[in-house]
Structures are given as structure tokens and as C-alpha cells.
Specification:
- It is globular, with a radius of gyration of 17 Å.
- It is built from six helices and seven strands, in the order H-E-E-E-H-E-H-E-H-E-H-E-H.
- By secondary structure, the protein is α/β, with parallel strands linked by helices.
- The chain has a single domain (2-190), classed as Rossmann fold.
């Protein structure tokens, strides 16, 4: 009986992981339509510099902004533990250096999780009188969970995956995919 349960869990995990991977591929292949804001989900900083993962997300968000897909770039991510600057503040510096005007950048500095990123996104959209249509920018495997969370908050997300990522070999891709499979289930079960 135990062997059957373990086999079921492994098969279920593989099915969900495959679905997450296919969703991420679609997020790479399908261009988004215009929206109120391009939401770049935070991904860590090194001092006052974006981590390589966050930099890839920022670069992609800036490119979507340059294409005219939204009038605002909304950057998420708070201070977290042992960080010198909030992710969103570091992202703002990066975006401005890339030519995005300060007036087109919205930031929140308190979130520490993806769900909190999206709760703060919801708040900023309301405060700025923007509708709920957003383009979510993150890594391909992160986007299905982020989209589900955004829809729970009554946001209207489209997803756009970073075309470059740190997760380009199966050695790096598999742990990230397993992590996302776990966190997707955690959110669906516990709503956090």
C-alpha cells in the first residue's frame, strides 16, 4: 500500500511538473497584448545590484515597456532578511538606467513572497486608478503559480516569460521545477 501511495505521489508530481513546464513554454511563445502595467516579480538582490535572475526579469520587463505594451512598469519585492535595499528599489534604479522614466515606474517595498508581490500589485493598481489588466514577468516555471495567485486576487494577468534564464540545464532546471511544483500545491492547499 505504501509503495502504491509513493508511486501515485511521484506520478502526480511528474504530471504537474510537466504542466508547469508546458505553461512556461507557452509564456515564452505567446506575445502579450497591451495592459495597464507590466509587473516584474522580484527575485533577490546582491547589495544594490539585481541578482542574475532578477536582472533577466527586469531586462524583459523593460523591453516590453519599450514595445509600448503598458504605460507603467510595476516592480515588486521588499527588503527581506539581510538585504541592503528592497528588490523593487534596486529594480527601479536598473529600469531608469535602461531609459524608463521615473514617472512610469511604480514600486512596492514590503512584499517577501510571490503572493505578497501580487497583493501589493493589487493595492498599487487601485491607488493609481489603473484597471486590473497586467502583464506578469518572471521565469517560465514560476509563471503558472503567479498567474493562479493573481487570478485569486481578481487581477487579469497575461504572462510573459523571460527569454533568458539561469535555469538552462536540467541540473538547474529540475530543482526549480520541483520547487515550483511544491509551492503550487502549497498555495492551492493553504492559500499562501
Amino acid at each position: 500500500m505504501l509503495a502504491l501511495a509513493v508511486t501515485f505521489i511521484i506520478l502526480w508530481g511528474a504530471i504537474v511538473a510537466g504542466r508547469i513546464a508546458r505553461f512556461g513554454q507557452r509564456a515564452l511563445d505567446e506575445p502579450p497584448a497591451p495592459a495597464s502595467a507590466i509587473v516584474v516579480l522580484g527575485a533577490g538582490v546582491d547589495g544594490h545590484e539585481p541578482s542574475p535572475i532578477f536582472e533577466a526579469r527586469l531586462r524583459h520587463g523593460v523591453e516590453l515597456y519599450r514595445q509600448g505594451l503598458a504605460p507603467y512598469l510595476l516592480l515588486t519585492g521588499g527588503l527581506g532578511t539581510e538585504k541592503k535595499a528592497a528588490e523593487s528599489e534596486v529594480g527601479k534604479t536598473y529600469a531608469m538606467a535602461a531609459g524608463v522614466p521615473e514617472s512610469a515606474i511604480l514600486i512596492e517595498t514590503v512584499s517577501e513572497t510571490t503572493f505578497q508581490n501580487l497583493q501589493e500589485t493589487d493595492r498599487l493598481l487601485d491607488e493609481n486608478g489603473l484597471d486590473r489588466k497586467i502583464i506578469l514577468v518572471s521565469d517560465p516555471y514560476h509563471l503558472q503559480r503567479a498567474e493562479i495567485m493573481a487570478m485569486r486576487l481578481k487581477l487579469e494577468p497575461q504572462v510573459s516569460a523571460t527569454p533568458t534564464t539561469q535555469f538552462c540545464t536540467w541540473k538547474t532546471r529540475l530543482p526549480f521545477l520541483m520547487r515550483e511544483t511544491y509551492f503550487l500545491h502549497h498555495f492551492l492547499l493553504f492559500r499562501q
